[in-house]
Amino acid sequence: MNLRNVDLNLLVYLDMLLKERNVTRAAESLGISQPAMSNGLRRLRELFNDPLLVRTSDGMTPTERAEQLQPIVRDVLASVEKAVEPHKEFEAAEADRVFRISVSDYTESTLLPHLMRRLRSEAPNITLDVLTPSDISYQDVEQGTVDLVINRFDVLPQSFHQMTIWRDTFSCLLSEHNPIRHSFTLDSYLESGHVWVSKTGMGIGVGMDPSAAQRLGWVDEALTKLGKQRRIRVFTRHYQAAMRLAELRDLVVTLPTKAAELLKDNPNVAILDPPFDIPEIELKMAWSPLLQHNPAHQWMRRLIADVASTLD
Question: Which domains does the chain have, with CATH numbers?
Answer without folding.
Answer: 3-78 (1.10.10.10), 92-160+283-311 (3.40.190.10), 170-279 (3.40.190.10)
